[in-house]
Specification:
Number of helices: 9
Shape: globular
CATH architecture: 3-Layer(aba) Sandwich
Largest sheet: 8 strands, mixed
Oligomer: single chain
Strand content: 15-25%
CATH topology: Rossmann fold
CATH superfamily: Alpha/Beta hydrolase fold, catalytic domain
Order of helices and strands: EEEHEHHEHHEHHEHEH
Radius of gyration: 17 Å
Number of strands: 8
Amino acid sequence: MLTDTFILDPRYPDCTLTTYIHEPYAELGIATRRAIIVCPGGGYQFLSEREGEPVALQYFAAGLNVFILRYSICEKARNSAPLIEAALAVKHVREHAEQYHVDPAYVFITGFSAGGHLAASCGTLWKDPAVLEAIGDAPAGIQRPTATVLCYPVITAGIHTHQSSVDTLNGGPCEGTPGAQRWSLELHVDKDTAPAFIWHTFNDMAVPIQNTLLYASALAAAGVPFEYHVYPDGVHGLSLCNRETDVGNPLLNSPVCARWITEAIRYVTEFKA
């Protein structure tokens, strides 16, 4: 494994990318691999390690080259910083596809909770003026992920939102401000939005199921393909739903919900761009 951690862009010194790259052994005969960028959750207030490396290693074991994006949080999440950083991460992986032995046609992004909001933002707002300004004169669309994998994501800044997440991103209370529309991703879906794999639990009390219902409905209306899994029971923040990530909390251990990672790997490895 080739691994490294570095600052993605000097304009965002708190944002790092950690690589997990397969050695290109001639014996294996695999010249290029698909890539996935992992965005941990944490309400834009912290970054959950439970949703970082344990998840990255599952994708790595499935044959992907993997990148963990540790994006700007707290007051440094203002002014669209996480969105720009996610776009820069997708751009970076594509621009360094030869170095990373990656097929540039297959660069995915995944996220959990607020990290899911970030991954969905990357797939939905990739034409946002702030993003276009940040990437400069790079080839058109280089920052658009091939598809997104959204794990119990925050989607809306409306009535069903996770208020502290969108307030942090907004740099203050979101309700009644332009941020309420800006960060409600279901309002920005169009035909160019990246396809999505989505999973959620029906009784998630922190980020209500309406978040993913709104996004799936918007994708359907725009004609954007998606795969949507709803498990009937499970608390928020399940990560891999097993002993590795349950931190001794039996509510975070769910064999039924743990099936999501197998389905997500299948989605990413079989997806046709």
